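Weekly structure sync, notes
Attendees: PL (lead), two postdocs, one rotation student
Agenda item 3: pending single-chain targets
PL asked that the sequence for the first pending target be pasted directly into the notes so everyone works from the same version. It is reproduced below exactly as submitted, 429 residues in total.
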Amino acid sequence: MGSEDKAATMFNTTFVRPEKFYLSGFSNIPHITYYYVFLCFVYIMTVLGNGFLLSVISLVKTLHTYMIVFNMALTDLCASTALIPKLLDTFLFDRRYIVYEACLSYMFFVLFFASVQSWTLVTMAYDRLIAICFPLRYHSFVTETSITAILIFVWIFLVSVIATMVGLLNRLSFCSSLVVNSLFCEHGPVYRLACNDTSLNYKFSVSLVVIIVIIPLLFVVVTYVCIFIALSRTTSREERLRALKTCISHLILVAIFFLPFVGTSITVWTSYIHANVRMINSTLTHTIPSLLNPIIYALKTEEVINAIKKLCKRNLLSIMRPQTKFNSKRVGGGAPEGGTKTRNKEHREPGQKQKAVAQGWEKHARTTKQFKEFGFTMSYDNETDQEAGWVASDEDRSPLEAGRVASSEDRAILGFGHMAGNGNSRETW
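Predicted structure, written out during the meeting:
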């Protein structure tokens, strides 16, 4: 057969695309339902942890620069959502047939979010490198614009790579078995079912391993080599420990994410690995890092913990705040002769000021005691407290520093009445 006949034969070849695939899952494992229940628990905790972290970053303005942590939490949430719900639906309810197009979409989202997780860890390593090796240039290099640009580039690049690799499956003919030996539509078990040439798909799968495992891992290793060299030149032992403390959480995340990938890949290429072991390792690799990331990294960060305390304190203040707010020109009391009774310096009766101040101090002592029972100290946060006339003081702030001085024309009994001003003089009540 000549070259023209071969070309005509290849051109006229019809690709055989099945209507559905069958996900085999585990084989000969008793009580495997408990494993699926465990994955369900992992998913619920992942949603709660990462959802809580996303809410804190969104609500606290000082954390709006935490683009990397926000991206990590969002990616972890999406990665678990892409894998676990469909997996539980498939095996807990015995719906193992999956439509061909749904299988490719399933594969795309699982691979894509796993890739983004990998490169998010690389971005964190870059942040640590600049912070420790170039501290004076940190705010020049690590800006909100630069981090946003890096993350957008990562998302666009990985979308194009994963979409190309998944799209190449459409050139394969599946003319024999349609049983995928996996818990979900993994790329390797799917393309090996084809009965025509799969060399291009194999090359892309190797390239993907290089992109999401080898290159990121090498970058992280080189980064920490530079960090350790920089720390070795630091004379202060306390500074070394402080810098290493900021890196430990990141190193734990790197180990949790990359070591299972590397171990599975080496085992598959060098020897035989049982299908059940491979599937367990694959599912845990895709789910456990998403569960642990907000616990190990974000919730161990001092700024995030302080922001959570601030939110809790603000909510507690709103609950315990009195229902009645004092107005600066109308504070309580009945109606005076010929109109509303106002308590300014013309209408205030002798002894009423001292009585109101005593009540304010009593309320202040009672509320401070309640806050100490919750482990908080009084702090002055927002404009609502200003309107209510609240004074929050602690070891680092006095009423004078808080600037809570009432003017002689607009003078009220403060809820925690500490000071009042009269003209140019100030008197303590």
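Discussion points:
- Strands lie at 20-23, 97-99, 179-180, 419-422, 425-428.
- Confidence is low (pLDDT under 50) at residues 1-12, 323-348, 373-429.
Action: rotation student to compare against the earlier draft before next sync.
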